[in-house]
Each structure stands twice: as C-alpha cells, then as structure tokens.
C-alpha cells in the first residue's frame, strides 16, 4: 500500500524511431544552432554542471542544468519551467536501429497538481515528432506562439494567504480605483503600463478569475489563479490565456506576451518570498525577457 502522504513520482517515457544515424540525432539534441530549429534557443553548449537556459522566444523558458553528456548515447538534465517551478529530471537515450535511431526520453518529477501523465506523454510526443520532422526535412519545426502563459510555485508557508486581501495586493500587480480592482500592471520599455481589468471574481483562499483587456486587440485575455494543496506546501498556480486570438501583429503579440510572462514570473517569485519572509531579497528571474 502506498502512503498517501508520500509524493509519488510522475513519470513519462515516450520514444520514437527516427530514420537518421545516432550522430545526427545527437547533434540535433545538443548543438544550439540545431536545437533552435525544433525545440528552443539554448544559451550555449550543454556542459555538465553548467547552468543553461532553453528559451522559446515567447516568454516561456526552462532554467536547465545538464547532468550527463555522453555522445552519442545519453543526455540528461534537470530543468525548472520559468525558473521557478519544482525541478524535473529529463533523460535522453539513443540506440541505433536498422533504419536509424530509437530516441527515448524519460521525464521524472514529483507527482504534481496540474500535470498528468497523459499531458506529459502528449507533450513529449509532440516534441519528438518535431525533432523527427526537422531531421527528415531539414526545415524548422518549432511551434508558434502558445495560447497560454501558465506556471506555478510552491509556497514555503501556509501562513501567507495569496488569494486573500490584503496579501493578494502584495504580490499581484493590480491596482484599484477605490471601489475594486481595475488595472493590471506590467513593466514596459517606457516604465509601468496598465491594462484594464474586468469580470473580477475572487473566492478567498481558493480561486481568482478575471479578464485583462489589451488595447487594439480583438478580445480580452483570461486569467485564473488558484491555490491548491501540494506535497511540498501550498501551490500557487496561474493560467493566462487568449494570446493567439488577439488579432495583433505577430511581433507585437510576441513582445507583449513576453512582458506579461516576465511579470507573472516576478509576481510568483514575490509571493514565494513573502511566504518565506524574505520579500525584497530576490532579483529578476533568470532567462526572462
């Protein structure tokens, strides 16, 4: 019998047969120029123990630390989504086959709240198909702008109440007009920039939902923030979606999404610091645009 109080590992082990030799697959997994064609932009070469960043260009990124780099057989690293989420272990193994290479990727993390095994499997199957497509065609297979910005952070203390006033306003960059929340702030090139808030609904200690209007956009974006129980403590999670339906120019939409992502990352860091009693000690999130 499994102890309900003990974290269970969340694991996914998809694989794919790719019709190129292991040396070519290895290059696509480790050469920053090639990795950028199907996955994301690495800050530099993968070297054991040397911190790196895998950046997707839209505000999403992983803070990454390589553990094993054994050409052309095995590659592993730990990574944290947005530099703040709990770490996961990623292990790649390559084995020659008569038709090319069998690529296996193992994703292991603590059993989370948001992520399911099915979601992990679907996500890695998509990345493996992009790797396969790039190696077969030589054409970029990177995904376009992602519709959602989402992330989470485990709070070190339950005493901090991020979804209850006044703690809510200590980490979330919103302002009121004296009657209720009316604006969400991000830091733009010209300084703080405010965006109108509508449909604000707060269920204290459980859930917040609202819409954030983007000037010139076809429709507003949608936000939800929740606090859930986790093995390491309360988990503060957010989802901010609607980015692919704004109707803005591609570059403008991408830049705006990056700035909102950076704002959410900084906000979650602040919430974590407030929960730990160390607010003001942190800096800008590594890798954020």
Could you describe the 3D structure shown?
This protein has 289 residues and is of the alpha+beta class. The protein has two domains: 9-137, Alpha-D-Glucose-1,6-Bisphosphate, Chain A, domain 4; 149-276, Alpha-D-Glucose-1,6-Bisphosphate, Chain A, domain 4, CATH 3.30.530. Helices cover 24% and strands 36% of the residues. It contains five helices and 15 strands. The protein has helices at 22-30, 32-38, 117-137, 168-171, 250-276; strands spanning 9-12, 15-18, 41-42, 52-55, 61-70, 74-81, 88-97, 100-110, 149-154, 174-176, 181-188, 191-203, 207-212, 221-228, 235-241. The N and C termini lie far apart (46 Å). Residues 1-7 and 281-289 have low confidence and may be disordered.
SSE layout:
Blueprint: E1 9-12, E2 15-18, H1 22-30, H2 32-38, E3 41-42, E4 52-55, E5 61-70, E6 74-81, E7 88-97, E8 100-110, H3 117-137, E9 149-154, H4 168-171, E10 174-176, E11 181-188, E12 191-203, E13 207-212, E14 221-228, E15 235-241, H5 250-276
Antiparallel strand pairs: 1-8, 2-8, 3-4, 4-5, 5-6, 6-7, 7-8, 9-15, 10-11, 11-12, 12-13, 13-14, 14-15
Helix pairs in contact: 1-2
Question: How would you summarize this macromolecular structure in one to three sentences?
Answer:
With 289 residues, the chain is an alpha+beta fold.
Characteristic terms for this protein:
globular; 5 helices; alpha+beta; 15 strands; 7-stranded antiparallel sheet; Alpha-D-Glucose-1,6-Bisphosphate, Chain A, domain 4
């Amino acid at each position: 019998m499994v102890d309900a109080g003990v974290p269970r590992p969340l694991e996914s082990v998809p694989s794919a047969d790719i019709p190129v030799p292991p040396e070519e697959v290895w290059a696509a997994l480790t050469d920053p120029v090639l990795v950028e064609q199907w996955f994301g932009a690495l800050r530099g070469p993968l070297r054991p123990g040397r911190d790196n960043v895998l950046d997707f260009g839209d505000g999403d990124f992983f803070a990454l630390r390589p553990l094993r780099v054994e050409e052309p057989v095995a590659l592993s690293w730990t990574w944290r989504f947005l530099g703040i989420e709990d770490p996961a272990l990623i292990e790649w193994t390559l084995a020659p086959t008569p038709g090319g290479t069998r690529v296996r990727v193992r994703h292991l993390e603590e059993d989370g709240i948001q992520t399911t095994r099915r979601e992990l499997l679907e996500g890695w199957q998509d990345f493996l198909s992009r790797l396969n497509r790039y190696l077969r065609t030589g054409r970029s297979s990177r995904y376009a702008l992602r519709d959602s910005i989402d992330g989470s952070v485990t709070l070190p203390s339950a005493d901090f109440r991020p979804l209850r006033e006044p703690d809510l306003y200590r980490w979330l960059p919103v302002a009121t007009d004296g009657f209720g929340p009316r604006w969400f702030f991000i830091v733009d090139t010209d300084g703080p920039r405010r965006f109108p808030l509508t449909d604000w609904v707060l269920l204290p200690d459980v859930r917040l939902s609202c819409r954030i209007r983007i000037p010139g956009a076809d429709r507003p974006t949608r936000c939800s923030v929740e606090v859930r129980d986790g093995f390491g403590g309360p988990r503060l999670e957010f989802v901010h979606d609607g980015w692919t339906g704004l109707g803005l120019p591609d570059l403008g939409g991408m830049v705006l999404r990056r700035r909102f992502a950076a704002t959410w990352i900084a906000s979650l860091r602040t919430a974590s610091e407030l929960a730990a009693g160390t607010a003001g000690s942190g800096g800008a999130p590594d890798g954020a645009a």
